[in-house]
TrEMBL record:
GO terms for cellular component: multimeric ribonuclease P complex; ribonuclease MRP complex. PANTHER family: RIBONUCLEASE P PROTEIN SUBUNIT P40. Transmembrane segments: none annotated. GO terms for biological process: endonucleolytic cleavage in ITS1 to separate SSU-rRNA from 5.8S rRNA and LSU-rRNA from tricistronic rRNA transcript (SSU-rRNA, 5.8S rRNA, LSU-rRNA); tRNA 5'-leader removal. This is Ribonuclease P 40kDa subunit-domain-containing protein.
Length: 365
């Protein structure tokens, strides 16, 4: 008998593909969060991003590089702190400077399926806890995971809004949280964090006393590769027929993913033995344009706000008849390492349109 893997307490990953039009974009302000693809980038499953990929043809190289040079370079820190350090008293401390102001996003090391993992985003504290730690902490939460699939080791999730006026030292609810920080979560743990806003670093910086390791995320450009370009714009018939659109979306997303993986299967003139791979570029049964395609990547903790600014800048800079693809993958908090991801394709000859793939990983809320 082959051993079966232990069932996960989380829902399986899901992908939703949509096609739509983008409203007016202004270089001086971010688009409204209500419309796609901006609302998707701002959703809870895409807040902590770890990898951003930008794919574009050769004729856009100078334009893209010029647009990127004008963007703010993302920075993140790795630091060891306890929860008590984060909630420390003092108007000039870390809590009031970063957490209470909603300027920071931070995530502790670990998995949301095992151990205790903590996360702070815009003043919202989320804690994934083992049963023992939850009971000792004495704070109110709810069971975590799909009902009926939590196994023999149930887990709990606690959510606290630290932005509310009552969440200050001396108030009952906050003191209960401080008790848990001093008696249950009192060990120093590794965190990664970055600033959400582009505001300047305070002086003195309360983070500096914890000796953080600062990491600058510079864009990395891969060498251009000659590719056969498939049809990248859905026809009216595809848009009207959901099955046809799903086939188009699946084939196009697979092609873009292979480019991100730098697979030789999408290169022009690839003649791999079909015994090894049956993959063929979509539309290869007819004449196809061949051009060099480049990829620029950012790897490290970045916020969805930065990703939104970057995507907006690329939309405004790219010529109306050119295509490009923008992908942002989140940090996985589960053992399966399946991540949530957003991919946006601006089709060629379609300046105000987009194809969006919204992939929600198992731990997506």
């Amino acid at each position: 008998m082959f051993p079966f893997p232990a069932p996960s307490s989380l829902s399986p990953a899901k992908c939703h593909a949509t096609y739509g039009t983008i409203g007016h974009l202004d270089s001086n302000q971010l688009p409204k969060k209500k419309g796609k693809p901006w609302a998707t980038l701002q959703s809870s499953s895409h807040r902590f991003l770890q990898k951003v990929d930008l794919i574009f043809p050769e004729k856009l190289k100078d334009t893209i590089n010029d647009a990127i040079s004008k963007l703010e370079t993302p920075v993140y820190h790795r630091v060891f702190m306890s929860l008590e350090n984060i909630l420390e008293k003092g108007i000039d401390g870390f809590f009031w400077t970063y957490v209470k102001s909603g300027k920071v996003m931070m995530l502790s090391e670990g998995s949301s399926e095992t151990g205790n993992v903590l996360q702070i985003y815009r003043g919202q504290l989320t804690m994934w806890l083992e049963k023992e730690a939850y009971e000792r902490a004495g704070i109110i939460g709810k069971p975590h995971g799909v009902k009926g699939s939590r196994g023999l080791k149930p887990r709990w999730i606690v959510e606290v809004d630290l932005m509310t006026p009552s969440m200050v030292h001396g108030k009952k609810g906050f003191d209960r949280l401080m008790y848990a920080a001093r008696n249950v979560f009192n060990n120093s743990m590794p965190w990664i964090l970055c600033s959400i806003s582009s505001a300047s670093t305070p002086d003195p910086d309360p983070l500096s006393k914890f000796q953080p390791y600062r990491r600058i995320i510079n864009p990395v450009e891969t060498e251009g590769v000659d590719l056969s370009i498939p049809p990248l714009e859905p026809t009216p018939d595809m848009i009207a027929d959901r099955d046809e659109f799903d086939n188009f979306a699946t084939e196009t997303y697979e092609w873009l993913s292979l480019i991100r993986l730098q697979s030789p299967r999408v290169e022009a003139g690839d003649e791999v033995d079909p015994y090894l791979s049956l993959y063929r570029t979509p539309g290869d049964d007819g004449p196809m344009e061949s051009t060099q395609v480049f990829k620029i990547s950012w790897t490290g903790l970045v916020s969805s706000e930065w990703a939104q600014k970057t995507l907006t800048a690329i939309f405004l800079a790219a010529p109306s008849k050119s295509w490009f693809s923008f992908s942002a993958g989140s940090i996985s908090k589960g053992r399966s390492r399946d991540t949530s991801e957003v991919t946006v394709l601006r089709p060629s000859n379609s300046p105000g349109e987009y194809v969006l793939w919204d992939i929600k990983g198992p731990e997506a809320e």
